[in-house]
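Working notes for the structural subgroup meeting. M.R. asked for a predicted model of this chain before we commit to crystallization trials. I am recording the input and output together here so anyone reviewing the notebook later can reproduce the run.

Input as submitted:
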Amino acid sequence: MEKISENRCFGGQQLRYRHQSAVLNCEMVFSIFLPPQAASGKIPVLYWLSGLTCTDENFVTKAGAQRYAAEQGVAIVAPDTSPRGEGVPDDPEGAYDFGLGAGFYVNATQEPWSKHYRMYDYIVDELPALINSNFPVAGDRAGIFGHSMGGHGALTIALKNPGRYKSVSAFSPIVSPLRCPWGEKALSNYLGADREAWRDYDTTELIARATTRLPMLVDQGEADNFLKEQLKTELLEEAAKKAGYPVEIRMQPGYDHSYFFIATFIEDHIRFHAGNV
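Returned structure, recorded in token form:
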């Protein structure tokens, strides 16, 4: 690993690193906040997954999470949202909702995406192994959360790996890629035309077959301009109710899709995770 930057923050350290990813076949960057408690021993760790067009830096600079992570004594890891670099394919038309910045946290099976776009394996296996071996974190005390595409990633990854995470939360998640334009574009390209394969990356499908129950918190702004067409929170409510899966879904009047929304409620999410990890 190569350290890119280090900043003192709320008594802890905000760090940024570059490393070569064997899973993604490219160089990757991630950020990690270590609270003051990391100097005294291993601490719980939270993984934050960002949304479309984002890198690791959006959350680090806009969410205001470090203050609350320092108070609760938890580390926060923020990876990039997709593979990047020379030779990594992008949307042929340069659209924001596919390709670079839009890895969707799946393992692509279709060419030319399958060589690099394996963000699921990167988030679940490769990155945690790197974090656990290089930083004072307790890998068995982990939570995962995210926003929009990253909310989709956090929810699906947690539901598919319940023993790996103690809690999961999301802001404005894409709850059913099977039933929204963003998801249909990404999954048809990454996974192919067989929609059955898409079900493994759809929260509403996974919650219906879940055999364990993780603490789950979802915040959604009622003034989010993507709510009706892309996010469709009501589908998660219906699926959770039908499956008997206890999810706390909070519809927040007046809030939109931005980091102003995330910054408003990030303390709640960090406290939620800290109480479970």
